[in-house]
């Protein structure tokens, strides 16, 4: 019986539960390691344990999330996963893919290098250059390089800071820029793509798009994330969009991914790639269980390698 570790922080998370149920249905012996409990001993050999679970004895590990922790702790956890991967343990998604996707700046560089359409993007560490960039673009979003669920995203249009619902914020743009530079040391700036009030989340598993949903923003809003009030609706991708999503996941190095697309009169653009996506929205909209596809792909890979 193959041993599968499923790394979750919240056992009540929909995607975590779906992975657990599907893994057990497929016949895996399942373990639920907490990366926050990893202890490593190094002597003539290297041993990683999470509680009573010896990680090197697992055949495969699925990462639902890395868990909370300080910077050094996260670096340590990623390095443990890298070391396990080098031993031949299948880690899904690979630690490099999770890091590539989580870093919006580096992900943008990877997309551009592969010829995948993305919004025009700029990074600045200085206030004066930031103001010049934003004046030239006129309508932009400023995102945290490391962020999720639409948290911390700001839109500036014609010199005005807009709240997610489209209302004007009292914040002065320069004060906002200074605050972000003081906190983060840089600004990640992306051209705002005019759209119909919705974006697309497509799910790619093992080189195939298994389904896609629109994330429709509430009336008047410009932020579409489901966690920010967006509504999931069925979506059928064009052949070109499907190819873009598959290429984006492959460029990041992910076996499975949530790929976000924005449509405009200028064409379709990849906004982000999520290497630890939730499958709840697509299940509620299309009755597609992403966990079934992920577990099947893992099982196939283990069969091919003879593990």
What does this structure look like?
- The protein has 307 residues and is α+β, with helices and mostly antiparallel strands.
- It has three domains: 3-99 and 295-305, Rossmann fold, CATH 3.40.50.20; 121-191, Dna Ligase, domain 1 (2-Layer Sandwich); 194-288, D-amino Acid Aminotransferase, Chain A, domain 1.
- Helix content is 35%, strand content 28%.
- The chain has nine helices and 17 strands.
- It has helices at residues 14-25, 71-86, 95-102, 104-113, 127-137, 173-184, 239-252, 280-286, 290-305; strands at 3-7, 29-31, 38-42, 46-50, 53-54, 60-63, 90-92, 121-124, 139-143, 154-157, 160-162, 187-191, 198-205, 208-216, 231-234, 256-264, 267-274.
- It has a five-stranded antiparallel β-sheet, with helices on both faces. Strands 15-14-13-16-17 form a five-stranded antiparallel β-sheet, sandwiched between helices. The chain has a four-stranded parallel β-sheet with strand order 2-1-6-7, with helices on both faces.
- Strand 13 and strand 14 (208-216) form a beta hairpin.
- Helix 1 (14-25) packs across helix 9 (290-305).
- The longest helix is centred in the N-terminal third of the chain and has 16 residues, at 71-86.
- The N and C termini lie close together (10 Å).
- The mean pLDDT is 92.
